[in-house]
Amino acid sequence: MSNGYGGASTADTDDVVELILADHREFEQLFRRLRNREEDRAAVLATLADLLVAHAEAEEAEVYPALQRKAPEEAEEIEHGTEEHSEGHEALLELLQADADDDEEFEEKLEELVEALNHHVDEEERDILNAARENVADDERAKLGRAFLEARNRLLEGTPGDVRNVGRLVAEARERGEI
Question: In this structure, is residue 7 part of a structural domain?
Answer without folding.
Answer: no
